[in-house]
Amino acid sequence: MGCQGCIGKGRKPAYTTILTTMRTLETKGYLKHVTKDRMYICSPLLTCEQARQGLLSDMVARLFDGSPMLLANSLIEKTPANDKERKEISKIRTLIRRIKKPKEA
Predict the structure, then answer these.
(1) Domains of the chain: which residue ranges?
(2) Which residues of 49-69 are buried (b: 16+ CB within 10 A; e: fewer)?
């Protein structure tokens, strides 16, 4: 299955749309391509983890004033959680408070 089959949820995007997107991703350093029999064969240049970290770092910088804590609070406050998750979140918040607390001299 090519990119068209993977991307189009509900409708099939035009080949030129896919090609433009792939070229943009290549320009930004996310993938590379080789041409074989007039066909583009693309390969990722980043692992999923590298891409995730890059996007997350960019999002924190742009949307949360560079503060991972603002991102975490936003996720915690706006995302539904079950009882087990709420307990884990509470533990994490307690640990973060301890780390951020100024050391007493």
Answers:
(1) 3-44, 48-100
(2) eeeeeeeeeeebeeeeeeeee
Average pLDDT over residues 58-71: 90
* Residue among 90, 25, 94 nearest 54 (CA): 25
**Taking a C-beta distance cutoff of 8 angstroms, is the pair 42, 31 a contact?**
yes
- Residue written as token pair 């960019």: 58
Sequence-separated (6 or more) residues with CB below 8 Å from residue 75: none
Query: Is the pTM value of this prediction over 0.85?
Result: no
- Return the bridge partners of 1, or none: none
